[in-house]
Design goal:
Elements: H1 3-18, H2 22-38, H3 40-56, H4 61-67, H5 71-86, E1 94-99, E2 105-112, E3 115-120, H6 125-136, E4 140-144, H7 150-165, E5 175-177, H8 186-192, E6 200-204, H9 207-216, E7 229-233, H10 239-251, E8 260-266, H11 267-281, E9 286-289, H12 291-297, E10 312-314, E11 320-322, E12 325-327, E13 341-347, H13 350-360, E14 365-369, H14 373-382, E15 387-390, E16 410-411, E17 419-420, E18 427-434
Parallel strand pairs: 3-4, 3-6, 4-5, 7-8, 7-14, 8-13, 9-12, 9-13, 14-15
Antiparallel strand pairs: 1-2, 2-18, 10-11, 16-17
Helix pairs in contact: 2-5, 2-7, 3-7, 5-6, 10-11
Length: 440
Amino acid sequence: MDIKKTTDSLRSASQKLALQNASEKNAALATVAEALDKNRASIIAANKVDIDAARANGMSESIIDRLLLNDKRIDGIIESLRLVIGQTDPVGEEVAGWKTPNGMTIRQVRVPLGVVAIIYENRPNVTVDAFSLAYKSGNAILLRGSSSSYKSNVEIVRVIREALAGVEGGVPEAIELVEVRDHDHSDVDQILNAVGMIDVCLPRGGKKLIQNVVQNARVPVIETGSGVCHLYVDEFANLEMACTIAENAKIQRPSVCNAIECIVVHNKVAADFLPKLEAKFAGRVKLHADERAFDILKKVVSTGSTSETAPVVECPQGGRIETTLLPATDADFGNEYLDYECCIKVVDSIEEAISYINSHNTKHSESIISESRANTRLFQSMIDASCVYVNASTRFTDGGEFGFGAELGISTQKLHARGPMGIKVLTTTKYLIDGEGQVR
């Protein structure tokens, strides 16, 4: 990749977009939505090539689920795009304004960042999400997806660019996709070192990818986080509610970053709750239990991952696991399984739960199940994470669920952005000062 040539083109495109009004950008995005709908067959066909290659390479079914596109998911992509169209254009928004004692008028207004790069894994829906948010906020975007989703991304970008080219005032050069070659990451190094050419870089994927970007980037980075999320079942919890939320947060889509990886249980309810949890999971989740949880669960769960008598269970997204209970090791606590597995930790107080979670999480999403207002408010005040829930599943940490339409990812840092990142994250501000000849 010729990074200078690519970013020069993107910079020129961002300057064109900066002059467009909301109606012009919305018209272009609406045309893209129609084109995605009309071209869904070719997109799904390209995605099938990626899926077949992933299975041939031994990728787990839970990860393949992140890669998959079908009619329902394309419907979701188009709906997210339409929600972005319906949002207020942030560019030009007056954040603050005042008049100085000497008569100057100062206004702080939102402006685009300029050229944005996103480095992401597996999920081809991110291609449309990132593009739509960038375009609506007046930014050009450089997309670096993974090799596993490359055919899907190529087809999606082709559809987007052709749609933009057919709209009066459309800016097709505002989106570029990096050509990906297996085992070649030189393009990533170019992106991370494109000082003065790229205004911000966002990593979206697993821990290894995020750490590589954060540790090696010389351009500004908005850090998204891997998802080691916890569910804490308090001593005052409604246990039936806790089981239902645990099932949703772990099983619905175990490979996503807002799925829980650890269930923390107060000792006073552990003996009642854990058998209910195992019955709710019905053998669909491999449990890594600490000593106290193991002693309770071993009475109701078949143990031993190689047991010939343990039943094999079909999982919702495909694949099969044995019903197993394993003693947890230190490596299980703070681990992101991204599969039908989770660890169980028993604690003696809410303070211990908070301390444990804060020392093992990735600052993503945490939830408490409790009927105690004092405990829920303590949990929300003391947990260090971008999203802290009371009596609800962590699976709601998502731009669409928060009303943003699309999202760029979940920021787990504390500067500029935190939590699901919507359209305003791709803007900064500048001050516009009007005077009448004032001098200092």
